[in-house]
Description:
- The chain is α+β, with helices and mostly antiparallel strands.
- Helices cover about 15% and strands about 25% of the residues.
- The radius of gyration is 28 Å and the shape is globular.
Amino acid sequence: MSFLRFLSDRFAPSTLLAGSLLLTALPGLALPVTPENLGLGLREIVTDYHGKPEAQAQAGRPSRQLLSEIEERRGVTDDEGRVLVEIYLSGKTPLSEFKRILQKLGVEVTAEVPTYARGVLSAYLPLARAVEVARLPGVSSVILSLKPFTNVGTVPPQGASVLKTDLVNGTNCSGFCGAGITVGVLSDSYASATTPPTAADDVASFDLPRAPNNPLNTQSVVVIQDSGTSDEGRGMLQIVHDLAPKAKLCFATANGGQPNFASNILRLADLALGCAASVIVDDIIYLAEPFFSDGIVAQAADTVAGRGIPYFSSAGNRESQRGYLSDVRLIDDAAGRALQGNGENINFALIPIASSAGGFHNFNAGAGTPAVSQTLRFSATGASLFFQWDNPFSLGRVDTDFDLFLFSADGQTLVKSSTGNNLPGGGTDQPIENFNASGLSTALDYQLVITRKATAAPTATKVRYVGFSGVLVREFFSNNTPITFGHNSAAGAQGVAAYFFQTPNTPEGFNSPGPVTIYFDTAGNRLASPQLRLKPDIAAVDGVNTTFFPPGGDISQDPDSFPNFFGTSAAAPHAAGVAALVLEAGGGPGSVTPARLRQIFQSTAAVHDLNPDFVQSIVKSSSGRFSLGASAIQTSAVGDTISASLAVTDPNAFKVTYTGGVGLNQLTLNLASAGVVFDPAGFPFTVSPASTITAAQVTASLSANNTTLTLTFTAGAFTSGQTLIFGIDRDLVAAYGQTAANNGGNGADFIGGQVTGQGSTVVFIDSNGTNFTGRAANILGRGYAYLDGFGLIDALAAVGALP
Length: 803
């Protein structure tokens, strides 16, 4: 893959510094020692390049085999076989002099941000020069630059009626349509497609502005920098144009590494480059962005927000079971290894003592035997896992070094490890480890072990990882584990969650939940009090039509044949389009500050569920031997909405607790009013090991249409203080989106009537034969919720909130 480059002076790879060494391996010569300050897989790539004859093609270029390894690691190469890297500077060499040195080594610098840490460059690096570059005095570390993730006219604006922008626009744009406002979009690419519909076709069909006969907007899209990928950015521009058809549009790629992304944010705000954006939006996340501090892209977002430009970013499409967050809980090396055969099947002999000298992380937050392994599954071969801890990036302050080990389910095979030197002064100076799922089975479980190298007291207090493209946490997880991270969580940015436009009372189950906690300032100083940020900030719609994106992405729920653009990648440009209308209504660019716009969006958002993935029914009675307030039966359910998650097979999904004077004989749960059915084929009724009522004490039966589950208890079993915990699969009925794969309906919120507006009924019969009836309900209101922020924005109410 090649990118347009704005620093394009090229120097031939054969132009070398006087006295420099050609480090390509030759017969009879010792291989160079690969420096430990090459990170995120670059050290392994360079080692293979020098150590495996088959890894080199002609003229020192990487072979197809090595290019495949680079691709598996999500690396990027140019047409000359050079690898895209991020070079973090030490400050020992003036930047201008350092760039001249790189140029003479055949390194092409494509972006620079001298204000982040001690300076960082994006560059294309010949692998033959990697060792030499890593050892330059001006270099702190050289990190593999990873491909970013997107949070994935003729076409009708389907989001307009939900967000009420059609009412703000008025008939024939007689109201506010974004006139005088400029919206800048960052994504992968804009106009790389050569097969119809192209960008030119979108202009001709009025799905984008510029056509001379366009009745609303003849301004061309200003392209600051493009790239050759999927044109997802053009789909985003179509969405903005749908809502704000008179707004000027700009585009810049977010590809090319984090420094290039950050630079392009600033370029979109630059009047001299022809854009001068009033609003900026992106749908990108770099996998190595910091979890616990503001990285280079987050700082760029804060910079433009500080100039009065609202910034929006997709919150992410990874639900809570795609990651893990915990306090650091270490047990010493000897105690960890002693667990073999005593709760753990891990073959600890496969873990070097040097990697575990500082101990093992204990996944068990409760009492009992420590657990130093966690069960994971990789549902796709392209999956990857990124692990961090709360040390600052690239400022010489990393003082804790964790390693990762992935074992087979039987604990006897070490299948993956990540053991880089993370410390400054020879290592990467970055608190991050990672691995991908290449070579792993998607049908098997694996066990993750986290170790610490040094024995000195660590300053790190938190560990966290996020999985991408198919990592499933199957043990020690929570339905509200924070997942969203990176620049969408910058203080000046608004992270945007998604709602499907056809079900605007139901947030997408794949939304990456918050909140986010920041532990360091931009200088790497630990904050006296960590900063809690309520992310995501807001929500907008997804699932709308575009002319082309994603290819083949049409759904059966709408009557047309256009592709439907899903994900927070589609929600973010909707929010930016609404922001353009509010700015126009407020008086033009800069008339509403980013902070005020956030407050307006949050205070005028729709009523929503304040406790996502949870629903409960509390039944009380004053009849018979019960007294009001003294006797209560509480039924609750947890679970998110993703079919691939453990919500389908979670034996802890339902919990029934009881306090009262007599026992319970029967419980009946009827889901019909909620538009949900039970699906025992997906996962049968199963009593949890955590339940005090055992499987032998309860009999389950289903109605013929699977809408009603009846549980009958052994006489005298379910008395005051007892708890029943169980699971069973659920699906939405066909009228509410059930598919042939039965992949909807496991969210607890559906039981509370999130789709139909009427919750499920719960009926209990006590040992006296008395019936008690209740209804499951969600907690609705205004305020923050971890899944969708402050809720779905309302353009009409937002404009109405202006003075």
